[in-house]
Design brief:
With about 210 residues, the chain is an alpha/beta fold. It has one domain: Alpha/Beta hydrolase fold, catalytic domain (Rossmann fold, 3-Layer(aba) Sandwich). The chain has 10 helices and 6 strands; from the N terminus they run βαβααβαβαααβαβαα. It has a 6-stranded parallel β-sheet, with helices on both faces. α4 links the parallel β3 and β4. α5 runs antiparallel to α7. The protein starts with a strand and ends with a helix. It is an enzyme of class 4 (lyase).
Length: about 210
């Protein structure tokens, strides 16, 4: 079994390093790079999802997907499209219907941020704005019934922008459980790596 980790926008693959190190499946774990997947392609959600799907399709074994924020959206999307391929799913700070107002506000903030801020994560400023803009109409509500694997939904106690959606998602998915990380915000993998790793390991052991 292969464990694939997906970071959020504003992070790099090494954002998962401390979490992966604390789990017992570190030897079977890979943290993917969103920037590398989009390299040479148009900065749209469709292009990113296609590239991510190709990465998943390369794996001969069943996969466990663990994603944060945008990474969680991609993981959920793939589990809907390929239920037979995904053994288990971990969705952190997840949205199942994109909050248009939040995305527009986020993009407005991006426009005022310096280019250097984005370069350190491997993206151009215009690409991040374009990517977020193409996500606005994503809505998985009618497809959630296709997810058949066990799902762990995690959200930081202080992540008020995503907590409501995460709890709702747990209610929609038949084989799911919800865990809240105390004192953690949106980037749980960076803010509470040990606590998150413990929750993941418990879930992984029940899946195997």
């Amino acid at each position: 079994m292969k464990y694939l980790y997906l970071h959020g926008l504003g992070q790099k693959p090494d954002s998962w390093d401390r979490v992966i190190k604390e789990t017992k499946v570190s030897d079977s774990s890979v943290s993917l790079s969103l920037a590398e997947m989009l390299e040479g392609k148009a900065a749209t959600y469709g292009e990113l999802y296609t590239a991510f799907s190709e990465e998943c399709d390369k794996e001969n074994d069943e996969i466990v997907l663990c994603g944060l924020s945008l990474g969680a959206v991609l993981a959920l999307n793939y589990a809907i499209d390929h239920p037979d391929k995904v053994k288990a799913l971990v969705l952190i700070a997840a949205q199942y219907k994109m909050p248009e107002k939040l995305l527009k506000f986020q993009n407005m903030l991006f426009r005022f941020m310096p280019n250097a801020t984005f370069k350190q994560f491997g993206f151009k400023k215009a690409d991040v704005i374009s990517l977020c803009g193409t996500m606005a109409e994503l809505d998985f509500r009618d497809s959630l019934c296709k997810v058949s694997c066990p799902v762990l939904i995690v959200c930081g106690e202080k992540d008020n922008a995503n907590k409501k959606a995460s709890k709702e998602l747990a209610g929609y998915l038949s084989n799911s459980c919800y865990r809240e990380l105390l004192k953690a915000g949106h980037e749980a993998n960076a803010e509470a790596p040990e606590e998150l790793a413990a929750v993941l390991q418990e879930f992984y052991e029940n899946v195997e």
